[in-house]
TrEMBL record:
Pyridoxal 5'-phosphate binds at residues 113-114, 247, 310-311. Coiled coil: none annotated. This is Adenosylmethionine-8-amino-7-oxononanoate aminotransferase. It is found in: Cytoplasm. It comes from Amycolatopsis mediterranei (strain S699) (Nocardia mediterranei). GO terms for biological process: antibiotic biosynthetic process; biotin biosynthetic process. Its cofactor is pyridoxal 5'-phosphate. The record marks 18 as: Participates in the substrate recognition with KAPA and in a stacking interaction with the adenine ring of SAM. The lineage of its organism: Bacteria, Bacillati, Actinomycetota, Actinomycetes, Pseudonocardiales. Its EC number is 2.6.1.62. Keywords: Aminotransferase, Antibiotic biosynthesis, Biotin biosynthesis, Cytoplasm, Pyridoxal phosphate, S-adenosyl-L-methionine, Transferase. One of its GO terms (molecular function) is adenosylmethionine-8-amino-7-oxononanoate transaminase activity.
Length: 426
């Protein structure tokens, strides 16, 4: 079948994310991905600035990840996890417990980031119920957040941002407070901490947990905040008997310059969600980690088990490739890579400050963002970035990149050049 036939079938049958059916903007047909490059059916090669939605941190077709996957496929691709276990999942859980902030010891493997947020919420609600506090079943979160596309994560996504406002009245009603003032280096604002304190105190009898994206609010707006707000949240949640959940699905595994964003604050949450880069972007797998206190609390309840068990839980292929990906991070070389990304993004995006449409330029670790004064036209932006040899997916008024850690300075120049071009033209 040639490319035109495939694209016609794509338009007829394949429903793409956040797109109407049939799609208005045709998708690009990718035939191969290797290193940081996507090869298109029409022969073009694009430098990937998205890391496949922030997950392919080591690039595509990494020999170590390919080998781990192939070797595992030769042994066992899947077995049910109920009543059975296996080395790849055991090694993965132990490694995650070792790498994550001290105190997070138990690992519940999930099939996607959204599911790990569902599981985290279940952990918190079940924990409170087990303590005889069933009224504590709401979640408090920051406006401007994003936690996934199933119902519980949607209920804590930004309520006004357009993504999920359609579902108001159907989703569980959570408690929203303003997001912290923007800026990783902006000195913390005590009046904002006072506001957080007042809201947590006001709702403490009905709050199971506070859930936030630490340091970077991703798909809700690509905003950064000072780590001191995480320390404030830790103190406030402890003082008011509320659990604290960090959603590290986008920030985890080095993206912000720390292995987990919680490390910028030196804080351990009660529950932490990871996903995306966990498998180096090879397969869908995520995890919800929790402290022994949370697990023991649930075990004392009327239903002493965590009522969750998807068919593909602990998938050995995903576990094996996750182990290989974590193995690549183990020597700490990623720190040098992410520092290089940060410099390349800062240098490459500096000229954007002079562009009339750009209202903000922000860079943290391997994340570079241009905020514009108008929403971009996705079709125009896609033409612009591909004409510059890059792959990016701007949204709303944001043009951003989260390149693979292995991107070279030349790759970063292509990516930032494409971002500037969108800011000039789209
Ligand atoms: N939380 C955060 C912070 C995310 O960025 C995402 C995905 N963009 C999710 C949750 C949902 O993860 P998934 O797409 O794997 O369900």
């Amino acid at each position: 079948m040639d490319s035109a036939d495939l694209l016609a079938l794509d338009a007829q049958h394949v429903w793409h994310p956040y797109a109407p059916m049939p799609a208005k903007v045709p998708a690009l047909l990718v035939t191969e991905a290797s290193g940081v490059r996507l090869k298109l059916a029409d022969g073009r090669e694009l430098v990937d600035g998205m890391s496949s939605w922030w997950s392919a941190i080591h690039g595509y077709r990494h020999p170590v990840l390919d080998a781990a996957l192939t070797a595992q496929a030769g042994r066992m691709s899947h077995v049910m996890f109920g009543g059975l276990t296996h080395e790849p999942a055991i090694t993965l859980a132990k490694t995650l417990a070792d790498l994550s902030p001290d105190g997070l010891e138990h690992v519940f493997l999930c099939d996607s980031g959204s599911v790990s947020v569902e599981v985290a919420a279940k952990m918190c609600l079940q924990y409170q119920r087990s303590r005889g506090l069933p009224g504590k079943r709401r979640l408090l979160t920051w406006r401007g957040g994003y936690h996934g596309d199933t119902f519980t994560p949607m209920s804590v996504c930004d309520p006004d941002g357009g993504m999920h406002s359609l579902w108001r009245g159907i989703l569980p009603e959570q408690v929203f407070v303003p997001a912290p003032p923007s800026g990783f280096d902006t000195p913390p604002d005590q009046s904002y901490v006072d506001l957080l304190a007042a809201e947590i105190e006001r709702h403490e009898d009905e709050l199971a947990a506070v859930i936030v994206e630490p340091v970077v609010q991703g798909a809700g707006g690509m905003r950064f905040h000072h780590p001191a707000y995480l320390r404030a949240l830790r103190e406030l949640t402890e003082a008011h008997d509320v659990l604290l959940v960090f959603d590290e699905i986008a920030t985890g595994f080095g993206r912000t310059g720390a292995l987990f964003a919680a490390e910028h604050a030196g804080v351990t949450p009660d529950v932490m969600c990871v996903g995306k880069a966990l498998t180096g972007g090879y397969l869908s797998m995520a995890a919800a980690l929790c402290t022994p206190e949370v697990a023991a609390g649930i075990a004392r309840g009327e239903l002493p088990v965590l009522a969750h068990g998807p068919t593909f839980m602990g998938n050995p292929l995903a576990s094996a490739v996750a182990n290989a990906s974590l193995g690549l991070l183990a020597d700490g070389g990623w720190r040098t890579d992410v520092t290089r990304l940060e410099k390349g993004l800062l240098d490459g995006l500096a000229p954007a400050r002079d562009l009339p449409a750009v209202t903000d330029v922000r860079v943290l670790g391997g994340i570079g963002v241009l905020q514009l004064d108008h929403p971009v036209d996705l079709a125009v932006a896609t033409d612009v970035v591909t004409a510059h040899g890059a792959w990016l997916r701007p949204f709303r008024d944001l043009v951003y990149a989260m390149p693979p850690y292995v991107s070279t300075d030349d790759d970063l120049a292509v990516i930032t050049g494409a971002m500037l071009a969108v800011a000039e033209k789209a």
